[in-house]
Amino acid sequence: MICAAITALQACQMRRFGAGHVVLAWPAAMFIAIMVSTVTAAGLATFASLMIVCSLMQVALAWWLPTLRRIVTPTVAGTVTMLIAVSVLTIAFDTVGDLPDDAPRAAGPTIAGVTLLVSVIVAMKASGRWRLVAPFTSILAGCAAAAAFGVLDGDRIASAGWFGIPDVPALSVDLTPGKEFWVLLPSFAILTLVLGLKTISDGVVIQQGSRRQPRAIEFRQIQGMVSVNGAGMLLAGIAGTLPTMANSSYSLSLINLTGVAARRVGVAVAAVIVSLALFSKFTAALLTIPGPVLGAFLMLAMGMLFVSGCQTVLREGIDPRRMLVVALASALGLGLHGHPLTRDIFGDEYGELLGNGVTIGAITAIAMTLLIETMSTRRSRLEATLDAASIPVIDEFLVRLASGLGWNEASTMRLRSAGEETLASLLSQGDTAAGSPSPRLVVAARPQAKMVELEFVATTRQENIEDQLAFLTDEIAVPSVNDLSLRLLRFHASAVRHQKFHGVDIVTVHVEGSG
């Protein structure tokens, strides 16, 4: 029921809550181990209290995402996504052998191969409404192959009732947390941060897969997605069950296989989940699907998720520093996943919790990003207002910056022009009411070798500049007044990125120069 509610909320997008996309929610398997340990050592009430506290952390992560944007980067999110895909692939291959002991040795691989083959053929050949039944076609083909080997058991379906209501567990929350609460809180906080990072990366992946044409990432929807996931964790804490998480692999598979990404599909899926939760026959049918069929679907889904993680990492380009973050996080995450060395360092109990490759990789990626941010060149900063009167102040700031870097006149002029056109682009579509004070503007400059990164942080609500630059065409001989500043900005800057958060717009401009 909680997963259905979160799936519907993600599709609806109400103010700061919701992704506005088809985001299928399911229980977060990464919390199973720590839930078992917590309930065994401290009871269900302590687990519920920890979940409620950590749900607030997720909501805080969503609200503070503009501040944390240089730490929770696409490089970090993409690396975590790839690690999740690789870590789950072992489960997919183990599932291929999930058959009765007397089954032929070739049954599992053959059933999985048939399922994969039909999935690929239908996905490549089907179009229109036929793509809607593509997943069911491959499932039926896999089940038919399983029946041919005599490993399809239909007794579970025959013996199950039609409808049923599950028992409601005894709910409780510990309002006076003891020492067990404080000892376990750091582990819960780490896993919650990992879950938040996964939600961010999932949001990026689902956004990219839901659009017909490539567009800039809408971070306001990412914030809404993380906030709703925090609400799901709160409900799970009150109910004493596992928290919810976005299932980007199945969401993306549904979108890619069917070609449907409308938000109303998410609401319909939520209604179906509620109905099927009470339909015992259907639950029995799902449980009857052989392991090799499910394993084949999981392989395909994890492969899509891995590629999506790669696309997220490559979105900003790969420089030596980002390559080092991905390399070290991947090496430690994959190498230490389930390795006995983690138990030697943290002990058996915490080694089991902290020995997860996704957790290790996420911590490494965040730590490396913080280290690179700390060791980077000292930045210059200017505070102004978002109006035309700030142009001379910003121009003087950029002239001093170029002079300190020893840039020649041509490079200095290119830097000044890029700053002026960025401000003009921000002003061209601003919607500040008449008589109201001008929004605050912060300009930060980070020199890097032969390039300067300018960051304009403003409180505006105009269209995404990055998207507008992508839609500009070179065929128009005389640009209109509305896109003149954008064309000039594209000419002077080597790269432009626009991140839109709730209440904050951040435009990052790269300008190349020489002495």
Summarize the structure.
This protein has 515 residues and is α+β, with helices and mostly antiparallel strands. It is built from 20 helices and 7 strands.
SSE blueprint:
Layout: H1 2-12, E1 25-27, H2 32-42, H3 44-63, H4 74-96, H5 107-125, H6 134-148, H7 155-159, H8 179-210, H9 219-239, E2 244-246, H10 248-258, H11 263-277, H12 280-288, H13 291-314, H14 320-335, H15 340-354, H16 357-375, E3 380-385, H17 391-405, H18 409-428, E4 440-448, E5 451-458, H19 465-471, H20 481-492, E6 495-501, E7 504-512
Question: If you average the pLDDT, what whole number results?
Answer: 78
Helix content: 55-70%
Choose one word for the global shape: globular
Order of helices and strands: HEHHHHHHHHEHHHHHHHEHHEEHHEE
**How far is the first residue's CA from the last residue's CA?**
63 Å
Separate helix tally: 20
Give the strand tally: 7
User: What is the number of domains?
Assistant: 2
Low-confidence parts: 471-482
Strand content: 5-15%
